[in-house]
Amino acid sequence: MKRVETECTLTVNGVDHAVTGLHPGESLLDTLRERCGLRGSKGACEEGECGSCTVLVDGEAVCSCLTMTAAVSGRSIVTVEGIGEAGAADLQDAFLRAGAVQCGFCTPGLIVAADALLTRNSSPSVDEVREGLAGNLCRCTGYGRIVEAVLDTASQRREQP
Amino acid sequence: MGWERARRLCGVPVLIPENLAELREAAGSHDPVLLAGGTDLMVALNHRSRRIESSSTVVSLAQVSELRTWSHDSTSGELTIGSGITWSQLERVPFDTLAPALAQAARTVGSPQIRNAGTIGGNIATASPAGDGLPVLLALDAMVDTVGVDGERSTPLSALLTGPKRTSLVGGEVIVAVRFNANDGWQGYAKIGVRNAMVISVAGVALVLDRAARRARIALGSVGPTVLLAGEASEFLTSEFDWDTWTCSEATIATVAEMAAEESRPIDDHRSTAEYRRHGVRVLTSRLLKRGRERR
């Protein structure tokens, strides 16, 4: 049986990171930011309300602040940095074009959540986008332009798969 | 972030069993801390309202294959759902037809991120009076299968839930699955919250109209120390509902809704008032019953 104490290997964006000195109950968010140097995922509420720390674990969007690092060692983790590299830069462009970024703090989590949404549903309705992004808080934009950016990306991806 | 403050010199072992045999071994560790989706435990750890003692062992349930399965016995109608099945899975095929009220409850839990992590077993073990799956499981007379150091047992959910965030589970006892009859008739769940998403229920009601057993069950969430079965309202509806023509009168609906409200035991707290919660139970019960008699 697998046993992790203070050391483990994390596979993030396809790269193995040897992590040492884990403290008890350390969250994936802390490990990514403080040990792996990946500061795209943001920490705010640390209780799963705001979504700014959203990452993919085995393809599913989850809050990295609620994920215990030791428990996801060996699983595939994708952060916002990896989503850009994997070709979802279209989503980032669409956010910029639509004016969906103001202070930008929520944007990385939204990009990851939106990418997961579009992977599952390639032509979401407005309501489906709103429901799919319900776990990501934005205090600047009022969401209209974010929804617009996601819908725009969806139609672009359908035209140019 | 409290990063430096949180740093400790010692580690706590995290065991990641992959099957039930390994899980039983892991759960036999000294002071095991069970980790399912992490959506409750990690919040407590992040906010320092709970800490993991250095003598503890964390047992991750996420990779135990038996907990991530489900089965439907088409002869008996019994549906068995592994404790590691997530809300995201419960929202979708086939649970949306096998257990529509549970699928509806699943869709109201947190956000997509929370639903991808949170599990039905975690909902039971956390035993919050506001747990969205619990009124549904109570109305379905669900049985909970567990394994512990002393062996296996099956317990009615109603007996497992003993108080707010309290259960009769003992140390190292792990929920393996929850069992109940798949939908035959109509069932639904409705809740009130301050917004449409990311909201903890202010009041929730589950209604099950069981065609084969000719029995109605109404269960209530967030209006008592545990989720509650509205026993008198359920019995009255069972006797007044016309099971042959699948209908009931407006007067019956009003009486049942009133009885359910009377049976609720709400309190005033930071989320709502007892008065509003009782009103919510009345409205939700009536609304569900109107939906239920329309469709069979």
Please give the structural blueprint:
The complex is a heterodimer of chains A (161) and B (296).
Chain A lengths: L1 E3 L3 E5 L2 E5 L8 H8 L18 E4 L2 E4 L12 E3 L1 H19 L8 H14 L5 H7 L11 H16 L2
Parallel strand pairs in A: 2-6
Antiparallel strand pairs in A: 2-3, 4-5, 4-6
Chain B lengths: L2 H4 L7 E3 L3 H8 L4 E4 L5 H6 L10 E4 L9 E3 L5 E5 L4 H5 L3 H4 L1 H8 L4 H6 L2 H7 L6 H7 L3 E6 L2 E6 H4 E3 L2 E2 L6 E8 L3 E8 L10 E8 L4 E7 L6 E2 L1 H10 L9 H14 L10 H21 L2
Parallel strand pairs in B: 1-3, 2-3
Antiparallel strand pairs in B: 4-5, 5-10, 6-7, 6-10, 8-9, 11-12, 12-13, 13-14
Keyphrases for this structure?
heterodimer; A: 161 residues; Ubiquitin-like (UB roll); DNA polymerase, domain 1; 5-stranded mixed sheet; B: 296 residues; Uridine Diphospho-n-acetylenolpyruvylglucosamine Reductase, domain 3; Enolase-like, domain 1; 35% helix
